[in-house]
Amino acid sequence: MPPKFDPNEIKVVYLRFGATSALAPRSAPGSVSEKVGDDIAKATGDWKGLRITVKLTIQDRQAQIEVVPSASALIIKALEEPPRDRKKQKNIKHSGNITFDEIINIARQMRHRSLARELTGTIKEILGTAQSVGCNVDGRHPHDIIDDINSGAVECPAS
């Protein structure tokens, strides 16, 4: 006999998919209700065209939705490029420019998920992600700024 249903049990599920308008049938057929799919579509509306992770917290058959963006998604959103269709274009390189202050803001948002001991290390992680995305920081290559941080030419905030 299966175990009894516990109304106090909390289940956390992470789903990762491209933010589109038709999420309900796509996410997991048969396991996610249409209302939850509509709520996910509403929560991911700002992230159109990007791959995004959604945290579903389910307790007593009620789902709470929280968008958990990755560092690359935050960088691409900060570039403010128009959304592109990922089906038509593969391996998109973003050639925009982002300010160092925006990098610091993204590092503060990602701080709790970073493995670095200090904010400086998190800033370097975000700069490395910016290099992978293909954008520049203040008109310079992100790795040049990492070298400047290591040499002490660029000051990073303490927290």
Structural features, described:
Belongs to the universal ribosomal protein uL11 family. InterPro entries: Ribosomal_uL11 (IPR000911), Ribosomal_uL11_C (IPR020783), Ribosomal_uL11_C_sf (IPR036769), Ribosomal_uL11_CS (IPR020785), Ribosomal_uL11_N (IPR020784), Ribosomal_uL11_N_sf (IPR036796). Component of the large ribosomal subunit. The ribosome is a large ribonucleoprotein complex responsible for the synthesis of proteins in the cell. Binds directly to 26S ribosomal RNA. This is Large ribosomal subunit protein uL11. This protein has 159 residues and is α+β, with helices and mostly antiparallel strands. It folds into two domains: 59 residues, Ribosomal protein L11, N-terminal domain, CATH 3.30.1550; 81 residues, Orthogonal Bundle (Arc Repressor Mutant, subunit A), CATH 1.10.10.250. The chain is built from six helices and five strands, in the order βααββαβααβα. A three-stranded antiparallel sheet has the order 1-2-3, covered by helices on one side. A two-stranded parallel ribbon has the order 4-5. Strand 2 and strand 3 form a beta hairpin. Helix 3 packs antiparallel against helix 4. The longest helix has 15 residues.
